[in-house]
Amino acid sequence: MAGNEWINGYLEAILDSGAGGSIEDKPTTADLRDSGHFNPTKYFVEEVVTGVDETDLHRTWIKVVATRNTRERSSRLENMCWRIWHLTRKKKQLEWEDLQRSAKRRMEREQGRKDATEDLSEDLSEGEKGDGVGELTHSCETPKKRFQRNSSNLEVWSDDKKEKKLYIVLISLHGLVRGENMELGRDSDTGGQVKYVVELARALAKMPGVYRVDLFTRQVLCTDVDWSYGEPTEMLSSGAEDGDGNEMGESSGAYIVRIPFGPRDKYLRKELLWPYIQEFVDGALVHILNMSKVLGEQIGEGKPIWPYVIHGHYADAGDSAALLSGALNVPMVLTGHSLGRNKLEQLLKQGRQSKEDINSTYKIMRRIEGEELALDAAELVITSTKQEIEEQWGLYDGFDVKLEKVLRARSRRGVNCHGRYMPRMVVIPPGMDFSNVVIQEDTPEVDGELTSLIGGTEGSSPKAIPTIWSEVMRFLTNPHKPMILALSRPDPKKNITTLLKAFGECRPLRELANLTLIMGNRDDIDEMTGGNANVLTTVLKMIDKYDLYGLVAYPKHHKQADVPEIYRLAAKTKGVFINPALVEPFGLTLIEAAAHGLPMVATKNGGPVDINRALNNGLLVDPHDQYAIADALLKLVSEKNLWHDCRRNGWKNIHLFSWPEHCRTYLTRVAACRMRHPQWQTDTPFEECPAEQSSLNDSLKDVQDMSLRLSIDGFSSSVDYLAASGERDIQDQVKNVMSRMKKPESISSNDNEPVKPETGLSKYPLLRKRRRLIVIALDYYDNKGEPEGKMVKILQDIMKAIRMDSLFARVSGIAISTAMSLPETQAFLKSAKLQTAEFDALICSSGSELYYPGAYAEGDGKLYPDPDYATHIDYRWGCEGLKNTIWKLMNSPDQNGGPSKTGSSSPIEKDDKLNNTHCITYLIKDPSRVMKVQDLRQKLRMRGLRCHPMYCRASTRMQIIPLLASRAQALRYLFVRWRLNVGNMFVILGETGDTDYQEMISGAHKTIVMKNVVKKGSEELMRSEIRDDMVPKDSPLVAFINGEATPDEMASALKQVSKTSAGM
């Protein structure tokens, strides 16, 4: 087949074209045999090729037929036949599998919706039935009102919000992000999204009431990219002025903040960033906490200024924003830009890659999982079009248009939704900068304007005109005729050939207008990719076929700066802009054209519908109907009054797509969200904290030169395991450190006091004075879910290792993180002959409860959970609805919510004695009959229930905890609440564990993995084991020790891993 490589190119064109019909529609074999001679190979190839309207295929077919060597020709025909037959069969198989997937998904969704509505106590009202997502408003409304569709109870963001001083965080992780000289197109990750988020940050910073906007991205210190991408911060714009013309403050404005995560010396494509997401989250927390203190001192009267909203862009940033939002308890907004499920569907339909190959290349399943997690946490999802909501987000488990409509109506009327929630989707088109657009006087007497500009009138001299005008007009016999302008890359989906066919076959249109095709830049068509080359070749042949020389312009090159001039030229000739794409997700060029005074003809599929509804400046057509395209173009270029009306409407309404309008709508929608921010019932005054503790917040005092290191400045860098170097005497090192410490009397005396017993009460936990935290999170259980006997000795050895260095022990706290309840944890510690008061924190029930021995206790010493943490994780917690739904799901035969078999026993059993306010626990009787954890989460999402399900204790328990709760998030809460930096935490794990085990490995904390300890975790109830898209390989933050290690070896491992830092 080496000599037949050319076959693949046009076979792909056969499949991409969608024509060709099915084999069953062709003449039967019997009919052809009756005609006399029958060659099955020749018949099959001829029928397929002639059944496709693709000029290039006919050219290839002619080459085959013209081959002189009979054997070679026969061989080529044979190969073509079998290749086409194989691909056709594969395509039909894929279509069948797609139908099956769609049918199964539709059934699951309908069952989920049925279960959800059955649990809602009140019948649907008329309001719930009619309140549809994206429902069109009455035709008598103005375009602006139709476009915004703001509810009457929304207060539009206006200039009277100037007294607000908001801090907004945007996140866009992949690609190369900088404010000036953006390298758009440098690679697939540095494109339109980069430009969008930078312009959004600048525009938001100029809005009344917004004090500071931070755009988080990745810091890259790599010789392959410019040095500017390694700068910790970059100012995009200074802050706005107040009403008196005074500047807002020294930290106001828009900034790019580059957080180090992943390998610092490598620029990674977005598919390789997934294992480092949690590391980014921890680094971002450092910056936000420091900035909240800085802003609090400037504008908050000493109180921290928390982010007003955290906005994630794309799946990776959405996943990150969900974790940050959960750690800080602030609202989250999501913009998908490009969605994983939609891309997966398209790639599967092409039939060139299996699902496994697609996932290996694009990490598509991790991307989809990130988008689902973002939907769980998002208050608001911003889309560009209605089509994106219905046809793209509608593919996700976490969003159902119909159920969202029901829940929104009930919420608006104050009716209980039983813990169910669907994120709110709103259409806010991207903003545009129209500062360079010059709107000309719209008068009907401009017929001779172009003539005067190019010197076509008698006695006039030619004026200097843009170079691109000359480049276009050299193709045209009469450049004064109205210009039909199409601007897109030569992609088959852009449907340029249908436009050319419509123009070529409509004589009145040819007589009235010229056609200009701006199809990217090209040097040699033969060197272009197959799809683009085929389109360009077809265009040239169609121009020749219809003899359109002098009527069609198709310049080879243009610069980005030439595009406004191209629009201006078309407007000077009273032309029309057309976008005939088969489907157009948004249609930015339509807005650009309208800004330059061009009416439009556009596809009726996708974003142009919303754009035309807003601008009311053109006509929509079926892109498959060449006659409809020709009629719409002819109508606009021939009817002058209609042309002027469309031109005026476009200019009148174009402000709807400006950045100020975008930001005004954006802030209006965000203000309508449920506002949340950290609120402690038991406040911790900053002045009561140790002086060393405040050093965390000093690292970002100078906003222009921020230190984003994850270790605390000053004391922490010197105190890190003083015995580790071995080069200086310990006493000398201690003296050196002590000389740099601030030593208030009260703090020193308190620090020297011994740990109080459980019954001793303290206003605040000792944890807030700690420099480090050692977290023991070994999931070591027997087949009954009880702690293994060896766990006692391991715990005792870890405690000895920590206490071997007195200075280290003095500044270090110890915590246990476990799936056991508080009584079980206390009983286990008692069996190990350890007092509860020896621990600074107990993270119990998989992160649903947090206790501080020595504080938050009753008079008799009984511990009670941190009330602030309980309030923190209560977000979207629907306990009763979850109990009913999980029991029904686990007891259905197909585990899809259907009726259970008569007489069959349940695979789970309620374990009420281990339940608490934020944890539902079940005993697993038969692990083989329960769902995988991801499948369970999928079913719950389809029913509008947002939570964190997991299997634990060697697959003997199932626990359902709130969405914002987990053992990993509990550590971040300790950082936010008590300023105990995650980068100074050490987590001790086994080689496997509960289904949240992977979350505990990743992050900016140090991890010590004990080998050969935990033999069996709960990994059998996950879809897959540890994945490289969840946990980084060969991370310097992870150390390994043997399970039989002595306390000395454990202490050595702690010292070794303490020397590393995140992002190295």
Global morphology:
globular
Helix content, binned percent: 40-55%
Segments where pLDDT lies below 50 for 5+ residues?
1-8, 13-36, 49-58, 122-140, 146-152, 444-448, 685-731, 740-761
Strand content: 5-15%
Distance between the termini: 48 Å
User: What order do the strands of the largest sheet run in, or round the barrel if closed?
Assistant: 3-4-2-1-5-6-7-8
Number of strands: 25
Main sheet summary: 8 strands, mixed
For this entry, what is the oligomeric state of its chains?
Answer: single chain
**Gyration radius, rounded:** 33 Å
**Discrete helix count:** 39
The residue-averaged pLDDT reads 80
Task: Look at the helices and sheets and give the structural class.
Answer: alpha/beta
Précis, in short:
By secondary structure, the chain is of the alpha/beta class. The protein has 39 helices and 25 strands. The strands form four sheets. It has an eight-stranded mixed sheet, sandwiched between helices. The protein has a seven-stranded mixed sheet with strand order 18-17-16-15-23-24-25, sandwiched between helices. Strands 11-10-9-12-13-14 form a six-stranded parallel sheet, sandwiched between helices.
Please outline the helices and strands.
Blueprint: H1 5-17, H2 29-34, H3 40-50, H4 55-65, H5 70-119, H6 126-130, H7 143-148, E1 166-171, H8 192-205, E2 210-218, E3 233-238, E4 253-259, H9 277-299, E5 309-313, H10 314-328, E6 332-335, H11 340-350, H12 355-362, H13 364-377, E7 380-383, H14 386-392, H15 401-412, E8 424-427, H16 449-454, H17 467-473, E9 483-487, H18 496-504, H19 507-512, E10 514-518, H20 530-545, E11 552-553, H21 563-572, E12 576-579, H22 588-595, E13 600-603, H23 608-615, E14 618-621, H24 626-638, H25 640-653, H26 659-671, H27 691-698, H28 715-719, H29 730-740, H30 745-752, E15 772-776, H31 790-803, H32 806-811, E16 812-817, H33 822-831, E17 841-844, E18 849-851, H34 867-872, H35 879-890, E19 908-910, E20 920-924, H36 933-942, E21 947-952, E22 957-962, H37 967-978, E23 985-990, H38 997-1001, E24 1006-1011, E25 1038-1042, H39 1047-1058
Parallel strand pairs: 1-2, 1-5, 2-4, 5-6, 6-7, 7-8, 9-10, 9-12, 10-11, 12-13, 13-14, 15-16, 15-23, 16-17, 23-24, 24-25
Antiparallel strand pairs: 3-4, 17-18, 19-20, 20-22, 21-22
Helix pairs in contact: 3-5, 5-11, 9-10, 10-13, 10-37, 11-13, 12-13, 18-20, 18-24, 31-39
